[in-house]
Specification:
Blueprint lengths: L2 H9 L6 H13 L4 H14 L3 H12 L15 E5 L7 H10 L5 E5 L9 H5 L11 H11 L1 E5 L6 H11 L7 H15 L3 E8 L8 H17 L3 E8 L7 E2 L1 H12 L5 H17 L6 H13 L2 H12 L5 H4 L9 E6 L4 E6 L1 H11 L15 E4 L6 E2 L4 E7 L2 H14 E4 L9 E5 L1
Helix pairs in contact: 1-3, 2-4, 2-8, 4-9, 4-10, 5-11, 5-12, 5-14, 9-10, 12-13, 16-17
Length: 434
């Protein structure tokens, strides 16, 4: 088998066999096939596409390029949730404890933030001592014991994807549907939960800016998971404004704790319940979406989810006092209010600009080696649909450096779009793909 022939075959629009896909994925992972040949193949795929069988074979080849977690020691239907990335997205911090408090095993592998989107692990490290460096044995033990564990992604999971993505990123071959879907799903299949619920973001702050593209990606990923024997659902959600009011690690943790106390912003909770219903249904804990929603609401009313969050933090070596006393969480020393200068209604808050403002403050990473400041961020005092007058506070910046705060101020002012007429009500949930 020659790489030249595989490139030529795809260039002419023909489907690659499973053996051919395994050949180049394994060869590239080992370092036997050079970058320039894989670059040529990636470009050919961008122009010619991949069919359903090819996409599944590529996903499985990348999954099998490294370790596949053995979760057979965990009792019950294991559920996982994955977001394609957004601004202010702290849903995992709320959802995990809610679902786990219903006795459903939540076995989740999470990553750190990069660029303008945040990472679950960074947020959890706001709790002093918290660790996601769990052994596989401890991970399974925690899920069996308290029904939830979150561990960091290891380099041994889907190494082919990591290597391929780095190459695609510098060869303008990132935005091909099958390549995007297989990249995400190879890691989720390697994490090996029984049921996977996907939160596919769409809008200004999302990877998929257009709604139709988000649905296409959702369908592609659900089909891959289904063909791989997993229970799948994808919820397409709005990211044309930040989710909730808090952006930045410790601020988002505080908002998650508020949500677990029944005080979560309506847009955030709309997404939480939509995803949670799919997780509960997949686990067989409810028969209808209405029943699933009622069960989830009860975990908030009884504080069962809040107590589960505290238990989860403690089991993973964190200080659970911060769950019950969120005022202990770190916060930037400088507070700067962003003031409005026109009358009207907020029609849009460009999420990407807010995310970049948080990045400027030090709340995100420009490279994987960057150190982040957990205490900085932005609190949105106004959201889409709100009426505003000159002098109203649009947002509050929490910073530790005044120059950075001023830079962020400029981005935040530009992020708010204001119109004379009331803004139409936009649903956070665009649809569900099962």
């Amino acid at each position: 088998m020659r790489m030249y022939d595989i490139i030529s075959k795809k260039k002419h629009g023909k489907s690659l066999s499973r053996e051919e896909i395994q050949f180049w994925v394994n060869g590239y992972t080992r370092g036997d096939i050079p970058d320039y040949q894989i670059s040529a193949l990636m470009m050919a795929i961008c122009f010619q596409g991949m069919d359903e069988t090819e996409t599944l074979d590529l996903t499985l080849a990348m999954r099998d390029s490294g370790e596949v977690l053995d979760l057979s020691g965990i009792h019950g239907t294991k559920v996982d949730k994955h977001s394609t990335g957004g601004v202010g997205d702290k849903t995992s911090l709320i959802l995990g404890p809610m679902v786990a408090s219903l006795g459903i095993p939540v076995a989740k592998m999470s990553g750190r933030g990069l660029g303008h989107t945040g990472g679950t692990i960074d947020k959890l490290e706001c709790f002093p001592g918290f660790s996601t460096a769990l052994s596989k044995e401890k991970f399974c033990q925690n899920v069996n014991q308290i029904k939830i564990a979150i561990m960091g992604q290891t380099g041994s999971l889907a190494p082919a994807d990591k290597k391929l993505y780095a190459l695609r990123d510098v060869t303008a071959t990132v935005d091909q549907l099958s390549l995007i879907a297989s990249s995400i799903m190879s890691k989720k299949l390697a994490a090996n939960a029984d049921a996977i619920v996907l939160d596919v973001k769409t809008g200004n702050g999302a990877f998929m800016k257009k709604e139709e593209d988000a649905f296409a990606l959702a369908r592609e990923m659900v089909q891959i998971g289904k063909n791989a024997g997993k229970q799948m659902a994808a919820v397409v959600t709005d990211m044309d404004q930040p989710l909730g009011r808090a952006v930045g690690n410790s601020l988002e943790v505080k908002e998650a704790v508020l949500a677990l106390n029944g005080l979560g912003p309506s847009d955030l909770m709309e997404v939480v319940y939509a995803l949670g219903k799919e997780m509960v249904l997949a686990a067989g804990r409810a028969e209808t979406p209405e029943e699933a929603r009622a069960l989830l609401e009860q975990t908030i009313k009884t504080k069962a989810a809040l107590d589960k969050f505290a238990e989860f933090v403690e089991v993973q070596s964190g200080d659970k006092r911060f769950v019950y006393q969120p005022e202990l969480l770190p916060v930037g020393k400088i507070q700067l209010q962003v003031l409005n200068n026109e009358e009207g209604f907020i029609s849009r808050i460009y999420a990407e600009e807010i995310g970049l403002a948080s990045l400027v403050l030090g709340g995100g990473r420009i490279t994987k080696e960057s150190e982040i400041d957990l205490s900085v961020g932005i609190l949105l005092n106004k959201k889409r649909g709100d009426r505003v007058n000159p002098g109203d506070v649009l947002a509050t910046i929490y910073a530790n450096d005044m120059e950075r705060a001023k830079d962020a101020y400029g981005k935040i002012v530009c992020a708010f779009q204001i119109q004379k007429e009331p803004a139409e009500n936009i649903s956070m949930i665009k649809g569900v793909v099962r």
